[in-house]
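G., the chain you wanted modeled:
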Amino acid sequence: MALECDTHGWSCSPSCCGSGGLDAREAVRIGAAGVLLGAALAAEHFALSLPIPVAVLSLGSLVLTGLPIIVGTVQGLLQRQRNVGELASIAIVAALYLGEFTVAAELGFIMALGEVAEEYAHRRSRRDIEAIAADTPRYAFVVRDGETVRAALSEIGPGDRVLVRPGDVVPVDGTVATGTSAVDESHLTGESIPVEKGPGDAVYAGTINHDGALQVTVLRVGDRSAYGKIMQMVREAEERRPPSRPLVDRLAVVYTPVMLAAAGVVLLATGDLQRSISLLIVACPCALLLATPSAVLAAIGAGARRGVLIRGGEYLEACSKIDTVVFDKTGTLTLGDLHVTKVVPFCGRTVEGVLRVAAVAEAGSEHPVARAILDAAPEPGSHAADATEMHLHPGGGIEARSGEARIVVGSARLLALTGIPLPEEARAVRDTLAASGVTPVFVAVDEEVVGVIGLQDRLRPESVEVIERLRREGIETIAMLTGDHEVVARRVAAEAGIPEDAVYAGLLPGQKQEYVETLQTGDRTVCFVGDGTNDGPALARADIGVSIGSREDTVALETSHVVLMRGGLAELPDFLRLGKRAARTITANVLFALAFSFSMIALAALGILSPAGGAIAHQAGTLIVLANSASLAGRAFVDLPGGRFGRHGPGSCPAADGL
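Predicted structure as tokens:
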């Protein structure tokens, strides 16, 4: 068996868990075993008067193929691990006891060939994950004192400048200082078209520089980079045990003793040890053990290829139960690309003065509101040093100090929280802006509101389509939560196709989490979709938390179960469909593995299946399970010409999945 060494339940033998493919030594080992076995069979059939050469040749082949299985079994038993090689090892030893040397050699050789085939199928399932998990460089070329020197990544920090040559993997997250080039970002986003980069543009670790030399100012290195966060998610995805796995673990406790007892009963009833050997061979539970992890890996790989990072198999299996999808508004249903549309000053202030004051408070924030204000402010980028203290109020705004002055920028709720009265003229402006779909943000200095800034966002172009597809996929409830003004929230919801009674405005991050908890208490299975900025509690609480990720914002990679790295919602319905297909595939794999194994056990007990035939049947069942799992990658995320949908398209009925 080629998948998932595990300390619980069954584990693989060392011979099964190879280093990742058939290397030269393995090829020589199996090739030599095949030659020896072929010679033994030829001697057995054409030189019956020479039994010693047959035995010697068979034992030579068995040492190369069967011995690693037996050694792995013994090692597992010494470590108190149940091992899938136990039954096969007993069958080989029994064949040797009977003097059936060629039968024992055949068993070892067929098992070894099966492992090679399994490993090949396994690697096909993993190739998309391995593409994302390719190693970043350990060294970079750093420009220091006018010279370029080679330095370990551990010696590089923010502010350093590195040279990225054509063909190099970018070693750090940073900003292009000089040079232009096309950069392949497919390992981060799944998008295969290279992106043109020039001075001021951001580049990311793990991407590939194509045709020009770049000098990059370092922002983040190693595990702190976007690529490092992705690597962490990939590692977690492979380590997490999906909910269906404990069933296999419980079965492991009794399976081997029951099969040994069955082989003993067959031997007592028939007196035919070969039947018992055949039974033990086909009873090896490789297909059953591979049923879940092979499907999970194939599905995670299919998602990774399209920039959908899935933290573990448990979230794939949860897709089949999702009946409620809850969206954040800003940055999720909308683009999060806010821009200032109006500034209303009070107390003798000017428009520029209000923006300048707001920019002082927002200079240290990465929130979309902060970016919009900083972009509109006079002398953008020059206010970071003006604030001496900053305090973020998640979902409300920001509070800062500049000299002796206290500056508050945020919602009316934040003003009330900080003890600042909201004058009637500011209320009127708020209501007017909100009625026109503009989000009002108040600016206060000390105890006085000095202005209102109007911000406007746009609905993502795919939002309406995605919500329609979710309804066609059987999602019963679609809701929107936001900290924004209620009038603005209802306008966005109406554009997106979300009913008015499913819109909840003016919520803090903790209240979003409480809403998700309320749904779950009512027996709802919830997928929460947010931008990963202020939605951490709700993302963590939901049965599946999906973030709209970006390479600049690695918070989404830390707080979510699933990240849509292409920066939009288009892949969300496809992810949920992929999860449902994965769950159906796992069920089909398990049912097939059980039915096939019991059928082969019956044939072996009846004497219809020889030991060699049993070994072939065992490997065939395992490969069928792997092939069914691998087909997940071909059935998911298939583009139609001119569209983003899966191959069935909107409104159509996909064919039944699985076996």
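The CA atoms of residues 405 and 425 lie 23 Å apart.

Shout if anything looks off.
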